[in-house]
# Entry
Amino acid sequence: MSDRMNPWHNARLMHAGANVLLACALLAALSTAVWWLVQRPAFTLRAVSIEAVEGAELRQVSSLLLRSAAQRKVRGNFFTVDLDAMRAAFEAVPWVRRATVRRIWPNRLVVGIEEHRAIALWGDGRLVNTFGELFTANLAEAEEDGPLPELAGPPASEQVVLARYRELERWLAPLGRKPESVQLSQRYAWSVQLDDGTSLLLGRDQGVPIEERVTRWASVYPRVSHRFDSRPEVIDLRYPNGFAVRAVATLQPTPASGPVKAAARPARPVRTGQR
# Structure
């Protein structure tokens, strides 16, 4: 074998092999140093701080449950702790909508908690937050400040129904009335119950826009309400140029006849004068 073909006599090959061996040795030494550094007591987690996200406050989230979640999921040190596992554990706590976990050098974690804000009760018993998302929590806690309005609709319609509820709040404000329940049927027809017990039949979003029908009724009704002997039970706004009213006549009981139930009266069509 010639010297050129013998690797032990090839200076370039010898030099390259030496560089590879040196690089492997340096990499091994570096890995060992990093492992040694990571295991130092200085990086053992000393504290987990829990706080509300900026611009919010925590009203419903249990601090005891948050601490318990932190204790169960804190494994490892500053470098090795699984932040995704911790985040998931916090987001499993009732009333927590979103959690973020970040490291603070050299041995702390800060957890930011965004809490659900319940705005309504959904038809299946879950709650609706301000983003139109469904979540499960204690209804008594959600209604500490008073009963929540009730919303209902087909699957995946939560945001649409919540948006319509907010629109109705605005449209009905001139009458001094508020929607207590808003329902979207499987055929996508809308119905509303007001805080005085009156029901509004709005129908579907076709023909004359629902906003136009509701605002027209709200502007006209105070001028025609004197025609009815008692509070309307149902107001049908599905007409293009008017509305129909079905009132309830409340009768007082007399000694001779005993208690008398409220009797429903036929629907009375009312034209608004618009064509």
Observations:
- Helices lie at 11-38, 63-73, 83-91, 139-142, 158-172, 210-224.
- The CA atoms of residues 241 and 275 lie 5 Å apart.
- DSSP finds six helices and 13 strands in the chain.
- Residues 250-266 have pLDDT under 50 and may be disordered.
